[in-house]
Amino acid sequence: MNIGIRAHDLPMQSLESLVEDILHRDISSVQLALNKSFDFRTDPGFLTPGLANHINNAFRQANIQIAVLGCYVNIIHPDINQRRQALNRFKEHLRYVRDFGCSIVGTETGNINADIIYTEENFAEAPFLAMVDSVKELVAEAEKFGAIVGIEPGVNHPLHSPEKVRRLLEEVKSNNLQIIFDPANFLTSDNYLNQNEILQEAIDSWGDRVVVLHAKDFIVEEGNLRFVPLGQGWLDYDLIFEKLVSRKPHISIIMDEIDQDDIKKSSEFIAKTNNKFI
Known about the structure:
Layout: E1 2-6, H1 15-23, E2 29-33, H2 34-37, H3 49-61, E3 65-70, H4 80-96, E4 104-107, H5 125-145, E5 148-151, H6 162-171, E6 177-181, H7 195-206, E7 210-215, E8 217-221, E9 224-228, H8 237-243, E10 252-255, H9 263-276
Parallel strand pairs: 1-2, 1-10, 2-3, 3-4, 4-5, 5-6, 6-7, 7-10
Antiparallel strand pairs: 8-9
């Protein structure tokens, strides 16, 4: 098990400062979204093996693994030109991900709106099929470079339920497609009381395809989910660790939507929970 954070949950800064910041937090891995983490330009075509190796070396010398190269783009953008730009940007990350010392490029599945907002229109069949087409294209590119497309499901996207994830995996028959699993992403103020049933379905259906676990916690306040430090909310982490994490030694667990002041205690909570099921 490797405990990490999303680098963009820290302030945007230089490469050297970011590595130093993470090093002092006793964190062993990171999800790195280049355009959200660094104070340099990330225009299309900016990536090269040299830049990727430069970034990889800085993290590796600090004994920090780049677990996921984040490229969160709208792969079903309603503007076809913008969708094409998004897919091309993701493909660029796939080509160079190995130079980062990493194998996974991660994204969510987007939104039928240009702005990523919650809408049940995402749950219709047409957005799902558009998403399948985009994922197939990305996976075909990943297969050329020995890379993994890591897809993160969530209720704000067409991939909004464990059943839809299973359908995607059936439609895209490639092991170069894997899942970044954030259990809280399936939960809403309407269904959170059924979380054990929902999460058990996910683990039973496609737990073997989970390559990274995102970790955040929640409570429901005034009818809305509100994120809180790990261990201070209502997510059943005992279920997640017993049924999933215990089967995946050294899986990267990336703390998500976390305040930097809560990193230490949340990391300690993950380690303590893991020790129950070793």
